Amino acid sequence: MTKRVRKAIFPVGGLGTRFLPATKAMPKEMLPVVDKPLVQYAVEEARAAGIEQFIFVTGRGKQAIEDHFDHSYELHDVLTRRDKRDLLAVIDEIKLPAGAVTYTRQPEALGLGHAVWCARHLIGDEPFAVLLADDLILADQPCLKQMVDAHAGVGGSMIAVMDVPPAHTSRYGIVAPGSAVADPRLVPVQGLVEKPKPEAAPSTLAVIGRYIIDGSVFAELDRKQTGAGGEIQLTDALARLIGQVPFHGFRFAGERFDCGDKVGFLEANLAFALKRPDLAQHVKAFLPRYAAAC
Ligand code: UTP
Question: 39, 88, 200, 232 - which has most CB atoms within 10 Å?
């Protein structure tokens, strides 16, 4: 029987150089989309998927993330005295259950594979989820919930995938797909290539930052082999699991925004604002007016 996915890793140890100067002293994962930090969207998605243990792999300068998910006595006190019940509800919603959160450090940003490896003693021998907060997914049913449900049927490892323009393959891990299976959302993974040039890419199916990973990946990550960009790549370790455990790409329903990139981040802010009844009308009126004046 497939083991239930109970634990999620949030790797938040990266340097976020593409967002300098904003990320010089502030974690990239705390950048807000409208009024909520990226990492909170990821945690809410994990909770909606039934995750019970939340493991953050942090680094230097990332304390704001720990504070964000902790109780804030001063703020709570001020809001209570001012009878701001709506805001109290907003901050109470952020808190995670006592004992459900663990922070571990990645001493150096050596790559995503290394970040996941840093959490190995907190996972054990069970499938676990990995969520990259800078991939923000707008969906009717949260992406990880879609994946957890599909994973219950097939087990093994599963990665979220989506088609990207051929010119963009060098920004992603790219899947070499096997033959189609009955569920059109599932793509058997025959190979994985990290950031191939378009001419070397086996497809245009790119890996997005949602994973369900079989515990056996840690034996591969133990080798600490470096790959593209001199980093310890998660994709490379996953590629070595092919053939050992079932391995599927999952075509999720929803819109993904690359919030690690300026254009994707701006688009996410507009898309999420347009979904908000208190903001949508204003944004719709402002954009064409301002664009025409530029
Ligand atoms: P990115 O590949 O976007 O790297 O990481 P980055 O360092 O954060 O950003 P840039 O490229 O310099 O702008 C994707 C996710 O993986 C985490 C990041 O924190 C981010 O959430 N990560 C990356 C780690 O936790 N450790 C690493 O060594 C690398």
Answer: 39
Report how far ligand 1's centroid is from the alpha carbon of 212 (Å): 18
Residues of the chain where predicted confidence (pLDDT) is lower than 70? none
Take residue 55 and report the two structure tokens written for it. Answer: 């493991």
pTM of the predicted protein model? 0.95
Amino acid 228: pLDDT: 79
The per-residue pLDDT for 227 is: 83
pLDDT at residue number 180: 82
What domains appear along the chain, each with residue ranges and CATH number?
7-293 (3.90.550.10)
Query: Distance, CA 256 to ligand 1 centroid (Å)?
Result: 17
Cα of 62 vs centre of ligand 1, distance in Å, is 12
Cα–Cα dist 5/17, whole Å: 32
Amino acid 202: pLDDT: 95
* Residue 222: both structure tokens together: 């133990």
Angle between helix 38-48 and helix 143-154 axes, rounded to 10 deg: 40
